[in-house]
Structure formats: C-alpha cells, structure tokens
Amino acid sequence: MAAIAVNGLAGYSKEKEVPAEEKAALGERDYSFGKGLAVAIFAGIMSSCFAYGLAAGKDIARIALIDLRSHGRADLWQNLPVLVVVLLGGFFTNFVWSAFLILRNRSGTQFLGAPGTNPMGDSTTTGETLMEADPRELAGDARLRPRVLVVNYLLASAAGVIWYFQFFFYSMGQTLMGKYDFSSWTLHMASIIIFATLWGIALKEWHDTSRRTKLLVTCGLFLLIASTVVVGYGNYLVAQ
To answer: How far is the C-alpha of 18 from the C-alpha of 16, rounded, in Å?
Structure first.
C-alpha cells in the first residue's frame, strides 16, 4: 500500500509540473486528479474480481487436470480453460459498451478508414497545428489507405494477443505456486506497476521532472520491488 501511495504521489507531483497549455494540447480538457484517483481506485478494486473469477473456477481447473493427466499432458495447462470463462465476461461488457459508443457517435465507418474526431484535439481549435485539426474537415485523402488500415488492424490484434499472454503465463505460474497461489495476484499486480514504471523511465517520461518527483518515483519503485521480495521470501519460509 505504501508503494502504491508513493507512486501515486510521484504521478501527482509530475502532473503539477506540466503547464496547463501542454495538458490541453495533449487532450486533457477536464483534468481532475481527484476524479482520476477515484476512477483508478475503483478500477483496481474491480480488477481484483479477475482473481476471484480464477478462484471460483477451480472446479473447472480440476476437471481439466483430470483430462490432462488421462492424456499424459502437463499439469501446467489446467487453468487455461478457466480463462475462457473469466475473459468471456470481460469481452461481453467491452463489446456492449463499445457497440453503444459506436452507435451513439456514428463512428462505424472508421473501421473502413473513414476520418473521425480527433481525440488529441485542444479544447479550443485555432487551426495552427495538425494536432488541432479535425480530420473530418480535411480533404478526401484523409481516409486511411487500405495498407495503413491493415497495419492498424495487425497492430491492434498484436496488442490484444500480448495483453492476453500476461494471463496465459500468469495461470501457468499460479499452477506452480501450489497452496501459496493466493499471493500470485499480488505479485502480478506489483509486477505490472514495476515494469510500467521502468518503461516510463526508459521512454524518458520523467526526464523533465524535478528532483523531488524523480526521488518519489525511485522510492516508489524500490518499495514495489521490496514488496515482491518480501512476499516471495515469506512463501519460501513457510515452505521450509
């Protein structure tokens, strides 16, 4: 909890150092740290339901385990059928919400390359930069060419596959943790924050921030790594 709090404070400190004009240029028209924090906490609580889904699907995993052993397969794959059921719920809610937004915004033609609204646009359009331009007001050549459209679909598909792999390998690791699999979700979430922070550092997201902000993100990263070590060591001691 302390690690998450320090990382949140680092993010807050970073946002305070970004000029209002730059925030508007990046599309942050309605910036509110309080609202963002509330949504993030709610999202974190709801994401834990995924772990509950995996726990509730143990009966499915047991059936899969029996079938795997009867065919001489490794126990490692027993949790994969559970993912089918758990992820089906996520697919359904995302599909319904996406379909609602597509119908409301009448943006279905964008799947075929038609231009749409610019989500990165400023709150006040001056037309001085390309970022502020509305693609619908551009010439007909603003429509994406088939080659670009195919590349976009491939990249989006690759992102989905990579996203799924986190649960693919997580379910395998959870199988190997045995009776200590209760701590697997904690390690998984901590690892996400750790590597997301490291990517931010590698991409120089914190490059122009103050020394105080850099110190906060460093301390937050250290606390996260320390927490994973403590959880892992605790499991090790119990296993002895």
So the answer is: 6
For the segment 115-125, what is each residue's pLDDT rounded down to a tens digit?
Answer: 776 554 444 44
Q: Which two tokens stand for residue 103?
A: 């119908």
pLDDT tens by residue, 51-102: 888 888 889 999 999 999 999 888 888 999 999 999 998 899 999 999 999 9
Q: Helix H segments across the chain?
A: 2-16, 20-25, 33-56, 58-70, 80-105, 146-176, 184-202, 211-239
> Which residues have a Cβ under 8 Å from the Cβ of 94 and sit 6 or more positions away?
none
Judge contact between 27 and 120, C-beta under 8 A. yes
Residue 41 CA to residue 15 CA, distance in Å, equals: 18
DSSP 133-146: --GGGS-GGGSPPH
**Residue 93, both tokens:** 């809610």
Q: How much is the pLDDT for 129?
A: 43
CA 227 to chain centre: 21
**Identity of the amino acid at 134:** D
The model carries a pTM of 0.68
Residue found under tokens 């699999």: 181
Which position has the token pair 């993912």?
83
Measure the CA–CA gap between 67 and 73, rounded to whole angstroms.
8
DSSP assignment of 101-135 equals HHHHHT-GGGGGT-----TT--SS--SSSGGG--G
Residue with tokens 């490059």: 207
C-alpha to C-alpha distance for 217 and 201, rounded to whole angstroms: 9
